């Protein structure tokens, strides 16, 4: 039987404990997971894609069936190139739903071969977001309970000097 591959796409700016939870749970369900850093047209991005990739690599180093990549094109096209059968997204509050539903339907139209699966976030990550992490870190706050320990210092070093006048 062929290998079951799923894609975990996102902007990961930076990866949080919420993302890591979804990736870990997805890795237990599929033969291979590809975490891919992509462009979200409505977000500007603080870290470069290469910085985000490096942080994700450090974070998933102990998950043997997880690969990390960058792609600047369409998610539906990427899923096809990689022979993936699923796209995995995490759902937090209801506020995520409309946007995610729209993307899932669009991706299905562009690539009927691929299914979008939603995993519900753990309750403690319900209000966690990369933008919150960036804001707290740039103002000198404690992000320990929001980000993977392996990249905590990288984020603090990079953002703490940014906006403190
Ligand atoms: O972590 P995010 O910002 O919610 O992830 C959104 C992302 C990057 C997965 C989405 O914007 C995306 O798929 N971008 C790639 C371009 C694309 O395929 N756009 C059409 C989606 S319907």
Explain the overall architecture.
The chain is α/β, with parallel strands linked by helices. The chain has a single domain, classed as 3-Layer(aba) Sandwich (Rossmann fold). The chain has 6 helices and 5 strands, in the order βαβαβαβαβαα. Strands 3-2-1-4-5 form a 5-stranded parallel beta sheet, with helices on both faces. Helix 4 links the parallel strand 4 and strand 5. The longest helix is centred in the middle third of the chain and has 14 residues. The protein is globular and about 50 Å long. The mean pLDDT is 94. 4'-phosphopantetheine binds next to strand 1 and helix 4.
Show the helix and strand layout.
Elements: E1 5-10, H1 17-27, E2 32-37, H2 49-59, E3 66-70, H3 75-81, E4 86-91, H4 97-110, E5 115-120, H5 130-138, H6 149-160
Parallel strand pairs: 1-2, 1-4, 2-3, 4-5
The structure holds 4'-phosphopantetheine.
Residues 9-11, 38-40, 43, 74-75, 103, 106-107 line the site of 4'-phosphopantetheine.
Average of pLDDT: 94
What's the CATH topology name? Answer: Rossmann fold
* Run of helices and strands: EHEHEHEHEHH
Overall morphology: globular
Tell me the fraction of residues in β-strands, as a range.
15-25%
| Main sheet: strand order | 3-2-1-4-5
The figure for the number of domains is 1
**CATH homologous superfamily?**
HUPs
How would a textbook summarize the main sheet? 5 strands, parallel
Poorly predicted regions are none
Question: Regarding CATH, which class?
Answer: Alpha Beta
The count of strands amounts to 5
Q: In angstroms, what separates the terminal alpha carbons? A: 59 Å
Helix % is 25-40%
Output the structural class.
alpha/beta
Whole-angstrom Rg: 16 Å
């Amino acid at each position: 039987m062929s290998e079951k591959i799923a894609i975990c796409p996102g902007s990961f700016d930076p990866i949080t404990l919420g993302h890591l939870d979804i990736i870990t749970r997805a890795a237990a369900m599929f033969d291979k997971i590809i975490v891919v850093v992509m462009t979200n047209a409505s977000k500007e991005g603080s870290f470069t894609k290469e910085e985000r990739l490096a942080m994700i690599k450090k974070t998933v180093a102990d998950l043997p069936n997880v690969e990390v990549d960058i792609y600047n094109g369409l998610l539906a096209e990427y899923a096809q190139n990689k022979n993936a059968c699923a796209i995995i997204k995490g759902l937090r509050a209801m506020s995520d739903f409309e946007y995610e539903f729209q993307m899932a339907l669009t991706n299905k139209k562009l690539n009927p071969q691929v299914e979008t699966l939603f995993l519900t976030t753990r309750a403690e990550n319900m209000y966690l977001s990369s933008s919150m992490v960036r804001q707290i870190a740039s103002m000198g706050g404690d992000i320990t309970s929001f980000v993977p320990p392996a990249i905590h210092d990288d984020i603090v070093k990079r953002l703490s000097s940014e906006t403190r006048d």
